[in-house]
C-alpha cells in the first residue's frame, strides 16, 4: 500500500492563513532587532518566532540552529558592501580615491539603516569558533581596506605604519554612527568620517579636497 506524501507549500507561496511565506530576510531583521536588544543568549529561537508570528518549526526549516542563523545573518549583512567594493575596485581608481569612497558609502549606510543591524557585528559571541563564516565575512570587509591602504602606501599616496591595524580601525570608524547617535544627516556623518581618515593617511594632506571631489564623482553606492 502506498502512503500518500503530505503536500508541502512551495517557498514563496502564501501560508495557510493567507500571509506571505516566511522569508530569510524577514527573519534576519527581526532576529537582529531582538539580539541587539536582548543579547545573543537572551534572544531565543522561540522569541524570534513569536515576534514573527510563526511556529518555531518554521524557523528551524530555514536555519538548523541559532548559531547557523547568526552566521547567515552576518554573511547576509556584508554582501551589499562586498558587492559594492567589487564594483568600485573594477573601476581602477587611485587607492586613496577608492578609500574615501568606501568609507563614505559604508558610513552613510550604517547611519541610515536600523541601528540593530550594524550592532550585530559587536556581539562578543562572534569570537567563538562556531562562528567561522561570520568571522570570515567580516575579515573580507577588513581585507578591502587593507588592500587599498597597502596599494596607497606602495604608490606613495598614503602613509601608514601598520596597514592591518589601520584597516580594522577604518572599518570600525565607518560604524561609529551607531554609537554616536548624532542628529547630523547620514551624508554629513559619512563625509566627516572619510575626511578624518584620509587626513591621517594621505602623504600630502593638502590633496584631501581633490581626493574627496574625485571620490564623490563616482556614481556608485551600496545597494
**CATH class term of the largest domain:** Mainly Alpha
How far is the N terminus from the C terminus? 54 Å
Class from helix and strand fractions: mainly alpha
- Percent range of helical residues: 55-70%
The unreliable regions are 1-15
Average the pLDDT over all residues and give the rounded result: 89
State the order of secondary-structure elements, H for helix, E for strand: HHHHHHHHHHH
Outline the biggest β-sheet.
none
Short characterization:
With 223 residues, this protein is mostly helical. The protein is built from eleven helices and no strands.
Descriptive account of the structure:
The chain has helices at residues 24-42, 45-52, 56-62, 66-90, 95-112, 116-119, 132-155, 163-174, 177-180, 186-201, 208-216. It has 223 residues and is mainly alpha-helical. It folds into two domains: 24-64, Homeodomain-like (Arc Repressor Mutant, subunit A, Orthogonal Bundle); 74-216, Tetracycline Repressor, domain 2, CATH 1.10.357.10.
Offer a few descriptive terms.
disordered N terminus, mainly alpha, Tetracycline Repressor, domain 2, 2 domains, 223 residues
